[in-house]
């Protein structure tokens, strides 16, 4: 149940990102659902590999390179989907930052809801 609610709220967060920032476009809620799923899948499968491969650079930049990795995951999802568009790397960086902040709020709310 928690996973389903988190997925729906993540899709809503993507719609909010598109509303707040013009560099990200989402055509419909269905597109947002698919994009949230793909972003989650990329973050589960590809992101850990990138983090390990770029660990020296991440250490050198004091962890700031993780923002670049997040932006790449966001941009990659837009690259493989119809209905979810990101207008370049800068837009992916800003969009992923907003999406991450909204995701933190969602996670915090779900923790309080399911684990009082």
From TrEMBL:
InterPro entries: Phage_holin_4_2. The lineage of its organism: Bacteria, Pseudomonadati, Pseudomonadota, Betaproteobacteria, Burkholderiales. This is Membrane protein. Keywords: Membrane, Transmembrane, Transmembrane helix. The chain crosses the membrane at residues 28-46, 53-78, 84-106.
């Amino acid at each position: 149940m928690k996973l389903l609610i988190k997925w729906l709220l993540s899709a809503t967060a993507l719609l909010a990102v598109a509303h707040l920032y013009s560099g990200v476009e989402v055509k419909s809620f269905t597109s947002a659902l698919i994009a949230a799923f793909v972003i989650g899948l990329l973050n589960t499968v590809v992101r850990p590999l990138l983090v390990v491969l770029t660990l020296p650079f991440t250490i050198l930049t004091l962890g700031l390179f993780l923002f670049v990795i997040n932006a790449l995951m966001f941009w990659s999802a837009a690259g493989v989907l119809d209905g979810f568009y990101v207008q370049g790397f800068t837009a992916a960086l800003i969009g992923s930052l907003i999406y991450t902040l909204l995701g933190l709020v969602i996670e915090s709310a779900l923790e309080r809801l399911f684990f009082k």
